[in-house]
Specification:
Layout: H1 10-23, H2 27-48, E1 52-58, E2 61-66, H3 77-89, E3 92-97, E4 100-107
Antiparallel strand pairs: 1-2, 2-4, 3-4
Length: 112
């Protein structure tokens, strides 16, 4: 059994904090900057694609509700599964919760 959680990797967290310290960046400031960028980007996608329902989140925890274009109040589990598979294959860690995608922004560990 192995743990893919970044929060449980103390050495990785120490390295990340050292990089932020060297660059003068704060964790909170970076999370807020990325939140603004991601929410703005997904909202622009929402205008182009009927299957994107609710867009929200806080910091690097982003919620993207994928819906049926015929019935936008109904979650689209099939589409969410396709998006999940694509993103995992490209290094983005996501969680699928009742046809809702929750993104943990960051790359997965190699080989997982």
């Amino acid at each position: 059994m192995f743990d893919l959680s970044y929060a449980s990797n103390i050495k990785l967290i120490q390295i990340l904090l050292a990089v932020f310290d060297m660059t003068g960046t704060t964790l909170e400031g970076n999370a807020e900057k990325m939140e603004n960028y991601l929410i703005k980007s997904f909202l622009s996608f929402q205008e182009m694609y009927e299957v994107i329902g609710k867009v929200g989140g806080k910091g690097l925890l982003i919620l993207l509700d994928l819906v049926h274009y015929e019935n936008p109040k109904e979650g689209n589990a099939n589409l969410a599964s396709v998006v999940l598979t694509y993103c995992l294959g490209n290094g983005l860690s996501l969680k699928l919760v009742d046809a809702h995608l929750k993104a943990d922004i960051g790359h997965q560990q190699e080989g997982y």
